[in-house]
Amino acid sequence: MGSTTSAPAPAPTPASRTGPGGAGRHRRTLPWAVLALWIAVVAVALPFAGKLEEAQRDNVVDYLPASADSTQVAKIEQSLPGGATTEVVLVYTRDGGLTAADRGAVDGQVAAIAAEHRLTAPPQSVPSKDGGTLMVPLVTTEPGNDEEKQAAFVEDVRGAVSGGDGLRVEVGGPAALQTDMEEVFSTIDGTLTFATVAVVTVLLIITYRSPFLWLVPLFAVGVAALLTRAAVYGLVEGFGLTVTSQSAGVMTVLVFGAGTDYALLLVARYREELRRHPLPYDAMAAALRGCGPAVLASSGTVAAGLLCLLAADLNSVSGLGPVGAVGVVGALVAMMTLLPALLVLLGRRVFWPLVPAYGAEAPNRTSLFARMGGSAGRRPLAVLLTGVTLLGALALGAFNLPGVLKTEDGFTDRPESVSAMERLADAYPERSAQPISVIAPTGRAEELRAEAEAVDGVAGVERGRSADGWTELAVFAEDPPESAGETATIEGLRDRLAGAHVGGPSAQALDLADTNARDRTIVIPLVLGAVLLILIALLRSVVAAAVLTAAVVAVWGAAWGLGGLVFEPLFGFQGVDPTMPLLSFVFLVALGVDYGIFLMHRMREEALAGREPADAALTALRTTGGVIASAGVVLAATFAVLMNLPLVALVEMGFLVAVGVLLDTFLVRTYLVTSASLLLGRAVWWPGKLSRPVTVPERPAAERESVGT
Fold first, then answer.
1. In which band, very low, low, confident or very high, does the pLDDT at 12 lie, cut at 50, 70 and 90?
2. Reduced to 3 states, what is the DSSP secondary structure of residue 572?
3. Are the CB atoms for 671 and 597 separated by under 8 Å?
4. Helices 580-608 and 280-307: crossing angle, nearest 10°?
5. In this predicted structure, what is the pLDDT of residue 195?
6. Helices and strands, counts by H and E, the chain
7. Euclidean distance between CA atoms 57 and 41, whole angstroms
8. Are 214 and 201 in contact (CB under 8 A)?
9. CB distance 431 to 139 below 8 Å
10. Which residue(s) pair with 140 in the sheet?
11. Element (DSSP H or E) covering residue 704
12. Is 42 helix (H, G, I), strand (E, B) or coil?
């Protein structure tokens, strides 16, 4: 991307140095004014950006579907005496069977916990049939709805129990699982930010080969990240927007990935224009005119696709829509205002040692993308058919995907709570240690309790708290949590218990899967429609828009196929997060179409300049291929950072988006879109004016005869 001078630069005239009158002053003052405005914005935003982490919510209700039965259970439980219950299970095990001394130690530890904390009922020890495991459920309302107090209770319990001499003890149950998950979430922001900055820094240094230039876009995208955090915090305070740790982490990746992409495109075009204009201000103005529409359409496509998530019923998914859209728009604003101002003020010297001189010719060398385009140009039909066949073959790997991810399988490194749940499932096959929560009208509580006991798969029912006309029933299934048998039991309870609500962790997982299936049928068509309309408006072509849309959908299918080949066989994942099909589709379609916009917009520019369709396509690939490749690698690398986090859902998202972007960058854009454009010729711009052949007016007969003579 660098350049060297191959001819002496023409000396700028005095007028070109300063401009006529006010124009010269405008060139000097506008960049400084923009920089001053950004300093003021940062000063205002900085205090609020730091508060976003405090505003993030990872409670169960913040993730559940808004209209689901399990959501109603969670809300009603919070209104019962003491608020939400905090439930943990102590699991004591010894190979060969527990001894009398073990039971005495357990009784002493449980008594100490009961004396320290207000439990809803005296703890009851439940031995396994083989005598090797002892389960002690503990339930309290002491922390109420306060997440920090719930976590403190779990940590107090873990500190109060101990094993030794062959006796092992683990603390599990819903509250312990939630605490372990919160601990993971608490590390996401810092880990993700530092890792993303490091990846972007390395890639910018490699791309620019300059000791200074990489700092400018990195600084600008860092300011964009700060601005978006403050803006999202404002949405939380002003409109009650739900922001989870997952959505905040994805926003960070989006800001750095998309912002760096926009910077790469702008800097590459600015470098071109510096060879044509003596003043950096004029070169930047030309660069913004040239690539501005493509960057604006790109960010608009991503934002529109993300905002379609508002139609989702799942709280965590619908909240991600505006959070991600704010991140993309913030990146756009910073890269189209702050970055240009900084580059103009720093002048050409920021490109040292490869400074683009005014009047110099661009380096005349055959690029990799020119060679790729040449191969596509020689056999476009063969290239297109081969690429489509390859994508189709990769998509077949989706049939190898594992089932729906269970809660206990959601960690890459299994915490204590998950280990305890697995041990309980093995030791108590006749009864689940995780109850199904049923909220029944108090007047019918006993009737519904009897009805619940008669449902197939129910091992027992216990009555709990009552308030405001509702009574809590704890239903224990015969099958382990989130198994097919327990799912059938939950569905049986919902069918039989008219007027009651059925919830709890397993019911929540079932509702998540069902709601995601419903959301896909609504959101995916919305995303496709929004992307298609934006592409038609930008490219003035239905055919070109359809080609790009079909290409990104094919990439999504191929990425899922690759996921099927590695998720379980290579990574050992036991399932796929139910939100992943929808979220990966939105990200790959909205982000992937960016590179198609960059390529097709430049192709349209070349066609408007009078080039023939084949020449326009190959010229566009030659001039934008390098920057598109750099942008694709940066975006893929930033999403790949998610794969270092200890949550399976984020690892899956990072893998799918990263491999999808790389497929899109190096296969689809380079070969398939180019070869399809070559085959379609002018028809690719139908029904716009570029689709009509250029006709040369026929000369009058007398003129033809004169020329012949």
1. very low
2. coil
3. no
4. 140
5. 83
6. 25, 8
7. 27
8. yes
9. no
10. 86, 119
11. helix 701-708
12. helix
Instruction: Give, as one character, the DSSP assignment of residue 352.
Output: T
- Between these two residues, 25 and 555, which has the higher pLDDT value? 555
Strand locations in 468-579, DSSP E? Answer: 470-477, 501-503
φ/ψ (deg, to 5) at 456: -60, 135
Q: Which pair of tokens denotes residue 58? A: 């990872």
Q: Which residues pair with 88 in a beta bridge?
A: 138
Label residues 515-552 b or e (16+ Cβ within 10 Å = b).
Answer: bbeebbeebbebbbebbbebbbebbbbbbbbebbbebb
The SS3 assignment for 431 reads coil
Give the β-pairing of 86-93 and 133-140: antiparallel
Evaluate the CA torsion angle 87, 155, 53, 197 in order and state its sign: negative
Q: Mapping DSSP to helix (H, G, I), strand (E, B) and coil, where does residue 17 land?
A: helix
Cβ 634 vs Cβ 564: under 8 Å? no
Nearest one of 271, 257, 252, 269 to 299, comparing CA atoms? 257
CA distance 115 to 104: 17
Note the pLDDT of residue 41. Answer: 93
pLDDT band at 36 (very low <50, low <70, confident <90, very high): very high
Cα gap 433→173, rounded to integer Å: 8
Helices (H), 80-173: 100-116, 147-160
Four-residue CA torsion sign, 112, 113, 119, 124: negative
Tell me how far CA of residue 380 lies from CA of 372, 504, 666, in angstroms: 11, 56, 16
Q: Which residues pair with 447 in a beta bridge?
A: none
pLDDT band at 374 (very low <50, low <70, confident <90, very high): low
Sign, Cα dihedral of 202, 204, 206, 212 = negative
Question: Which residue is listed with tokens 């993700």?
Answer: 192
| Pairwise CA distance, residues 168 & 449, whole Å | 36
DSSP code for 167: B
Angle (CA) 106 108 114, round 5° = 100
pLDDT of residue 631: 80
User: For residue 667, what are the CA distances in angstroms to 476, 555, 595, 625?
Assistant: 53, 9, 12, 12
The answer to whether residue 453 scores a pLDDT higher than 70 is yes
Judged on CB neighbours under 10 Å (0-12, 13-18, 19+), 193 is middle
Could you read off the pLDDT of 491-541 as tens digits, one per residue?
A: 999 999 988 999 988 898 888 888 888 899 999 999 999 889 888 888 888
| Encoded amino acid at 511, one letter | D
Cα first-last separation, the chain:
53
Q: Which DSSP letter does residue 668 get?
A: I
Report the predicted TM-score, pTM, of the whole model to 2 decimal places.
0.81
Q: What is the identity of the amino acid at 140?
A: T
* Distance in angstroms (rounded) separating the CA atoms of residues 147 and 185: 13
Q: What is the pLDDT of residues 545-577, one digit of tens each?
A: 999 999 999 999 999 999 999 999 999 998 998
CA-based nearest residue to 181, from 645, 657, 656: 645
Find, among 259, 265, 235, 238, the residue nearest to 247 by Cα. 235
CA distance 494 to 481: 17
